[in-house]
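Quick one, T. Sequence first:
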Amino acid sequence: MFDPMTELARQHHAFAAYLDLEAISPTKHEYLDGHVWAMAGGSPEHAAIAVNVAVLLSAALRDQPCRVYSSDLRVRVKATGLATYPDISVVCGKLETDPDDPGGNTAVNPTLLVEVLSPSTEDYDRGEKLAHYKRIASIREVLLVAHDERRLELWTKTATGWTLEVVRGEASLQLHSLGCVLDLAEVYRDPLV
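Structure tokens:
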């Protein structure tokens, strides 16, 4: 069966054409170098963990000049051209949008990005996507949240490069860029079990 959205996604697109595609598509797509591909949907557990992290960050940043965004906010890495939808984005200070997006729906200045890993995207999120994220001028930290165990991996930008901190089990993790702490017990909290 012919699917016009799939056919459009296989073509080479300018960024403006990609934005037009996104405006009419019920599915979110990533964009890089003229290529557009559909993003995979998440499991119920993935969705619940993402909400837990967003709620924790929102509460911790209530009196700070930072705002937490869901995966509905598109982020563009200006240095590489990647446009994608992180599970959670935090922008501190004024939201800056991509001048190439006349609708103003693409952020370019996140302070923190969060990806909840899943079996189908884990390698990409830890590898190529992380490498793109590290090229964002404003980014200070990238948090990868495991799906298969209580584990947080925090990549922090330093004066000399990037450092990785991994916490597991019942530990807590300091987000230095935001001045707040995430407790793993709360990140993975499930009141139904």
